[in-house]
Amino acid sequence: MAELSEQKEQELGDIKSARQSSNGLWFGVIILLIIIGLAGAGFYFFSQLRDQQQDLGGEVKGEMSKQIADYQSQLVAIQSQLASLESNVAGKDNHFTQTLADFSQLHNEKLEGTRNELNDAIIRLQRQLGKTRGDWLIADAEYLLSVANERLHLVGDVNTTREALEAADQRLRESGDASTFKVREEIAKELSLLKSIAVPDVVGIYASIQTLQDRVDKLALLLPYTGKTLASPADSKKSPLPTENQGLLDSAISQLQDAVVIRHTEHEVKEILTPEEALFIREQLRVKLEMVKISLVQRNEVLFQSSLADVKKWTEQNFTKNTDDSFLADLERLNITRISSQLPDISLSLKMIKDIATLRVETDKAIQPLDAMVSVKKPTAVESSKPVETLVPAEAVEPSK
């Protein structure tokens, strides 16, 4: 029995071991299947992940390529802008360089011009400083001659012109320069011409015209006019009044006599002037006399005569003849007066003194034959006691120029 029990236990053990081995096999198969499933799932997920990575890489690459293309286009635009900027900078640089060169050239030209002007001024100053007193006197005489010409031909001032010529001749005499002899000779001729000129009395004629202007208010108008001022009441009170009615009558008569003036005239009275018209006629006569004075100051002979004729015509048309005979007589005297005269030409002496260098050359040529005559006389037995006579050239006795 014990052996049977042991066999049963052994069989049971074998069955258990067989069951355990089969269970382990199935467990291993299950584990293997699980591992295979996990591997397949992992491979699937790995392939999915790889596909996603590829898709993501393609998108990234596309986006990156697009951005790179954009960056390249931007770089091209930046390069083109840089090229245009460089060209602009180069153009401006060339412009500034040209402008600087032009400015430098202009500055150099101005500097050269200023240098030349300074050199000329220095040379003129040296010449002025190197002049002698005779040269200064000749320059002063030239100025006086120019003043004489201006005063004679622009103003007609004969007296000032004569004084200027005399002063210029005095300067040339004091200079002692032999080359100014011809200039002084011409000045003497011009002075003789000026002495023969009759100088009109402009101041006296002007005063006569001014007197005529002052007499305008005293001239009687040809036509009657209204508006004469009445006598003051104080004048009427001065006369004694015997009665009240007689005083009123005398006052009325006196006022009427002052208001109405009876004149006998040969002309037909067509109208009565207003006070404004009467004042206009007198003022117009004053204006015409003022034109006469202006023509006198300007020494315009034609305008002077025409203005006097206009004054005479206006006077005869608007004023009576019995009260202005002296006024018309004064106008006639002015009409025969000449306010201008024929002025001579005194410009030759000025031209000669401006060309003083030529005169000096001619004078030097004239004195050269005298220089060749310089010699010393040998004393004889009779003349041994006499001093030695020597011929001295003319330049030795001339004052320094």
SS-based class: mainly alpha
Distance between the termini: 188 Å
Rg calculated over all Cα atoms: 66 Å
Per the principal axes of the C-alpha atoms, what is the gross shape? elongated
Largest sheet entry: none
The level of helicity is over 70%
Order of helices and strands: HHHHHHHHHHHHH
Give the helix tally.
13
Q: Give the overall average pLDDT.
A: 75
- Beta strand %: under 5%
List low-pLDDT spans. 228-243, 256-264, 375-401
Number of strands: 0
Question: What are the key terms here?
Answer:
401 residues; elongated
Please describe what this structure looks like.
This protein is mainly α and 401 residues long. Among the domains are: 131-199; 200-224 and 273-342; 226-262. It is built from 13 helices and no strands. It has helices spanning 2-130, 133-155, 158-175, 181-195, 202-214, 233-238, 244-259, 275-297, 301-318, 325-335, 348-354, 356-371, 394-397. Helix 9 (301-318) packs antiparallel against helix 10 (325-335). The model is unreliable at 228-243, 256-264 and 375-401 (pLDDT under 50).
How are the SSEs placed, and which strands pair?
Blueprint: H1 2-130, H2 133-155, H3 158-175, H4 181-195, H5 202-214, H6 233-238, H7 244-259, H8 275-297, H9 301-318, H10 325-335, H11 348-354, H12 356-371, H13 394-397
Short structural summary:
The protein has about 400 residues and is an all-alpha fold.
